[in-house]
Amino acid sequence: MKTISTSSRPTPTDLPPAAIAALARLEAAFAEQTVARPAPLPPQVVEAVARYEAAAVHARDLAALAASGRMSDLDADSLAAAEDLMADARATLAAAGQLRLIEAAS
Questions:
Q1: Quick check: 87 and 95 in contact, CB under 8 A?
Q2: 92 located within any domain
Q3: Dihedral sign computed on CA atoms, order 98, 101, 103, 106
Q4: Is 85 part of any domain?
Q5: Which of 2, 74, 99, 104 shows the greatest Cβ crowding within 10 Å of its Cβ?
């Protein structure tokens, strides 16, 4: 009784000529559709997104405190600082052409 190994794969020379031609066409089509990976973002862009998101959370929390009428002067200063951080991060991202990274968060 002959045992067939499931780990062995046919090589192109084991295939009929029509199958080899079909495989070549498929490989060519796949190569045309393969999309190159985008370049990684520069560190300053990643940092700007992180600063923006952290400041936005802080500003949102402080805005809720302001809406409740319990905001202290220190909280107001902190809210202004958070908004300044957001504006600075937004400017960095705008200069890099990467505002899309925070548009959903805005």
A1: no
A2: yes
A3: negative
A4: yes
A5: 99
Q: Is 34 helix (H, G, I), strand (E, B) or coil?
A: coil
DSSP state of 6: S
pLDDT digits (tens, 9 = 90+) for 40-87: 899 999 999 999 999 999 999 999 999 999 999 999 999 999 999 999
Whether the CA torsion 4, 10, 14, 17 is positive or negative: it is positive
Residue 63's domain spans which residues?
A: 43-101
**Tokens found for residue 75:** 């909280």
Domain tally for the chain? 1
Q: Are 45 and 93 in contact (CB under 8 A)?
A: yes
| 77 in a structural domain | yes
Give dist(CA 45, CA 38) in Å, integer: 15
Residue appearing with tokens 């190569």? 31
| All residues at 6 or more sequence positions from 86 whose CB lies less than 8 Å from its CB, including other chains | 52, 55, 56, 59
Residue 5 lies in a domain: no
CA quadruple 59, 62, 67, 73: dihedral, nearest 10 = -120
> What would the two tokens of residue 23 be?
């495989």
